[in-house]
């Protein structure tokens, strides 16, 4: 394997792990949708989103990496809200 192939192989393994962890995260946000539906809680919680962004970046030393991870997590949370709204719509009670 060339250096490039070796590094791309490592990226492929990392991507698989990221995808599995994201799937796990979406399973939890689907469970949160069910709780919100049951308790009449809106999908969006900006304060919680700020906490998530702080937690995922607080131990990073490189500000540029921190900025990139913040943007990625904003997108993940957008998808999570989309997913929750779809689940809530399915049971006829979008919030
Ligand atoms: C998952 C939740 O719903 C929304 C999505 C969030 C997320 O994906 O982390 C965080 C806050 C909410 O805007 C939640 O309220 O915890």
Characterise this structure:
Residues 1-88 form the Chorismate mutase domain. GO terms for molecular function: chorismate mutase activity. This is Chorismate mutase. It comes from Lentilactobacillus curieae. Keywords: Isomerase. The protein is 81% helix and 0% strand. It is flat, with a radius of gyration of 17 Å. Helix 2 (46-57) runs antiparallel to helix 3. The protein has 95 residues and is mostly helical. Mean pLDDT is 93; it is low at 91-95. The protein has a single domain (3-90), classed as Up-down Bundle (Chorismate Mutase Domain, subunit A), CATH 1.20.59. It binds the ligand C=C(O[C@@H]1C=C(C(=O)O)C=C[C@H]1O)C(=O)O. The ligand C=C(O[C@@H]1C=C(C(=O)O)C=C[C@H]1O)C(=O)O is lined by residues 29, 32, 43-45, 48-49, 52, 77, 80-81.
Name the features.
binds the ligand C=C(O[C@@H]1C=C(C(=O)O)C=C[C@H]1O)C(=O)O; mainly alpha; 95 residues; disordered C terminus; Chorismate Mutase Domain, subunit A
Runs with pLDDT <50, length 5+?
91-95
**Mass-distribution shape:** flat
Bound molecules: the ligand C=C(O[C@@H]1C=C(C(=O)O)C=C[C@H]1O)C(=O)O
Gyration radius, to the nearest Å? 17 Å
CATH architecture label name: Up-down Bundle
The CATH class label is Mainly Alpha
Q: H/E order of the elements?
A: HHH
**CATH topology-level name:** Chorismate Mutase Domain, subunit A
Distance between the termini: 52 Å
Task: Give the CATH H-level superfamily.
Answer: Chorismate mutase
Question: Considering DSSP H and I runs of 4 or more, what fraction of the residues is helical?
Answer: over 70%
Report the mean per-residue pLDDT as an integer. 93
Structural class: mainly alpha
By DSSP (H or I, 4+ residues per run), the number of helices equals: 3
Give the biggest sheet.
none
């Amino acid at each position: 394997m060339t250096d490039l192939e070796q590094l791309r192989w490592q990226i492929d393994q990392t991507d698989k792990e990221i995808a599995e962890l994201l799937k796990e995260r979406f399973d939890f946000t689907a469970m949160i949708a069910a709780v919100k539906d049951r308790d009449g809680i809106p999908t969006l919680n900006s304060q919680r989103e700020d906490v998530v962004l702080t937690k995922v970046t607080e131990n990073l030393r490189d500000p540029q990496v921190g900025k990139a991870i913040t943007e990625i997590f904003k997108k993940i949370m957008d998808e999570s809200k989309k997913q929750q709204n779809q689940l809530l719509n399915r049971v006829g009670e979008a919030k």
